[in-house]
Structures are given as structure tokens and as C-alpha cells.
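User: Show me a protein chain along with its predicted structure.
Assistant: Here is one chain, sequence first, then C-alpha cells.
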Amino acid sequence: MKTNKTTVKEGSLDQLQARYEAHWEKKEYKKAYFTLKKIAAINELVFEQEKKGKLVELEKEFHLKQKDELLAQERMFNETLKEKNEELTRVLNTQKSTELHLKSLQLQLSPHFIFNTLQSIQSFIFQQDGETTGDYIAQFAKLMRAILNASEKEKVSVKEEVELLETYMYLEQRRFERIFSYDIQLRQIENQNLVFLPSLLLQPFVENAILHGVGNQKDGKIAVVFRYYKQYLYIHILDNGIGRTAAGKIHKRTYQGTSTALKIMLERAELSRESELFEFHFRIQDRKKNRKIVGTQVSIQVNYLKRKT
């Protein structure tokens, strides 16, 4: 029997049920039979409609749940990807930091400096100046030990840095036959062992002041000033040399290249921002008096990010 597939009107089943009972009481069994079939057909149609409604509802819930699961998977993927990127960045920064550390070491153990030092020792030997030769060799060995010791550390104390610089400048002063003097000053630093700075940081700047500032003039002066103030370490390297422009014209290229040393220091300063210990900034400018250039000044600021010292 064909059934009407349109929505069943409310009350139609009750009417059919009443009609069926009336036929049954009158013993109109044939009419009762066909009325009962209509009731069965309508019940089947109602069931189908309810089933379809449930399926639509379940399908919506499934899609919503599936969408939530996909969003959760996407969030998890993004978090994992972020963690991997951060880990990769840390690894690359560590690798780059190590490379820059080695380059800084190379600046200080440059073949040119070692050759000149050995040449000075040879000169003292030829002059049969045993006392001076012995002292020079001892100071050179002390400097090499200090540099190699610093190369194994991320940070050194002000005391260690001062000792390294004093030894280095003493050797260079002797090599340049005392044409320049030097002075290291400590201000507002009560304990040199408790104030730290990045290792292998200052010597290239001091070396530049000697070679390009005062190395070719008499009565040269170099001052290195340390000042500790409110969790910051300030370092100034001053010379009374010929200034940056004049030095650049005379020394177009040195054994290490001033531009190379400067580039390494800039990269170290940039990378120090990712450090958990220090970050540092530096600036190089001419010193002027009465509008005349009277030397060069390097200003370095070391910020302590976490007091692991």
C-alpha cells in the first residue's frame, strides 16, 4: 500500500484509531483491517521521519566533534611546530655563539701578534739581554694562558679581564718601545671577582686603539675605565690617537682587518640579546676638543639579564 510521505498531521492517528475501534465493535472486520493497515503505514512513516531527524542531528554532532578534533590536532601541531622552531633557534644560536667565540679567540691569538711577539723575543736574545728576554717570555706565556682560559668560559670576572689586558698592553708597550702609556681604572667596583663580563670581549678594541690610534705617535695614552652602576657594567676605552678617519686612511688593511673584527663584535652583540646571562652594546666615536679630533673612544655597556654570577 502506498503511503503519503508528507508530514503526518497531529491528531490523524487518534482519528484512525477511533475509526478502527468503531469498525471492530460493529464487526466490520474488513474496514477495521484496512484502517489498521493505514495506522501501521503512518506509524512507519513517523518512525522514518524521526529516524531521519536523529540521523541529521547525529551527523551535525559528528561534524562538530570532528571539527573540534581537527582544531585540537591543529593546535597541537602548531604548538609542536613552535617548540621545534624554538629548539632549532636555540641550537642555531648556540652554534653561532660557539663560532663567534672561536672567531673572537682567533682575533686575540692572531698570527700577526704572535709573530711580532716572537720577533721581539728574538731581538732581545740577539741583544743578549737575558733578563728582559726571560721577563718577556714569562709575560707572553701568561697572556696565552689567560686567553686560552677565557676561551673556555662564557664570562670572566673584571679581575681576570684586567690581568689579561695589563699583560697584553705590557707586551705591546715593550714591542713599541714604550711610545705609549696605559692606565686601567676601576670605579664603583668593590670586589673585582664578583663583577663579570663576556669573555674575549675587550682585547680586540684595545688592540685597535694601539695599532690604529697611538702605535705610530709619541706620547700615546690609552685608558680603560670600568664602572659598575645599578646592575650595569660600563667600559670605556680611550686613546689620544689620530682618530678613526685618519687611521682608516693610513691602515686600509691590517693582519685581521678592522672591519672583520668590528663585524664579529657586532654579531656577538646582536646574538647576546638571546643570551640568558648578558647582553652588551658598544659604540665607537671620535673624541673632540675645540672641534678638533683628539682621539677615539669605545663605549661598552654590559646588561645583566640573570644574576647567575
